[in-house]
Amino acid sequence: MTLAATGSLVGPAAAERRAVAAFNIITLEHAEAVIAGAEEAGAPVILQVSENAVKYRHGRVLPLARAAAAAAEAAGVPVALHLDHVKSPDLLRQAAAAGFSSVMFDAAHLPYVENLSATRAAADWAHANGLWIEAELGEVGGKDGAAPLDAHAPGARTDPEEARRFVAASGVDALAVAIGSTHAMTTRTGRLDHDLLARLAAAVDVPLVLHGSSGLPDGELAAAVAGGITKVNIGTALNVAMTDAIRAYLDAHPSAADTRTYLSVGRAAMARTATALITALGAEVPLPEAVRA
Ligand code: G3H
Ligand code: ZN
To answer: Does residue 218 carry a catalytic annotation?
Structure first.
């Protein structure tokens, strides 16, 4: 199967009130596992490479991007490549040539006016280069001098009217919003603000993106999709699955030396996690009160 474009997966999903899972990959094993998990679930999927993952690869984007593209081209389900949490204008400008069809430009740590101006410039560049672009609006800093909060920072909440204005003025194709999820949680104990999600979905006319989804239980994920989330970003859950599986394997096989023995165990664990999470996104849930009203 050829590589899919992120917009071609997210657009129809938004129209049908479904969600597409977007998994952050760090190694080739992550990419292979996510694709195997999506094939098992029979669903399209997005492979994401974050700026931090590029830093881990000594600042080089191509080795992982090309490996992911090759794995995606051999997949039995549509797979898109997305460059995630990009702050560096230099990395942004490598996105198209590296094979990504979309990018998330991350300026939510900046004051509103600077976030808007940087995002507007990024969106203009992205569209001129055929890329779908997601941006993020967390909690805008208060008049008392409080700093802005990223969408996935603890306690951050996106204001629906600010979100509507931000999308209209920036021209982005999707918006990551702050509704209660927190990045890098290793327990699935998070809770979302479903009333706020309903107000955001009513105010914003582009697909909404949930970040920090590893910390949410299945019911919260399904309710988020029912409430209007279209792209669900998941990273830490894969790393927890891989690390736990490898730790257990090495505890049981202390003399193991062939890296394939334990990496294959870690890859299989990530594939099971990906299947389970994709399945959770499609589960039927009663609509939240605010959506039914
Ligand atoms: O952009 C990536 C996601 O926000 C991943 O968050 O590692 O908490 O699942 P997570
Ligand atoms: Zn994120």
So the answer is: no
Atom of ligand 1 nearest to the CA of 215: 8
Residue 97 covered by a domain: yes
What CATH number did the domain enclosing 162 receive?
3.20.20.70
Residue 207 lies in a domain: yes
Closest CA to 174 of 97, 224, 227, 119: 119
Q: What total of structural domains would you count in the chain?
A: 1
pLDDT band at 286 (very low <50, low <70, confident <90, very high): low
What's the confidence (pLDDT) of residue 176?
A: 97
Tell me the three-class secondary structure of 77-99, residue by residue: CCEEEEEEEECCHHHHCCCCCCC
- Residue 184 domain boundaries: 6-292
Give me ligand 1 centre to Cα 212, in Å: 4
Judge whether 77 lies within some domain: yes
Task: Tell me if 136 CB under 6 Å of ligand 1.
Answer: no
Shortest-distance atom of ligand 1 to CA 184: 8
Ligand 1 in reach of 78 Cβ (< 6 A): no
Domain assignment of residue 1, yes or no:
no
Give the model's pLDDT for residue 106. 96
**Residue 188 has what DSSP assignment?**
S
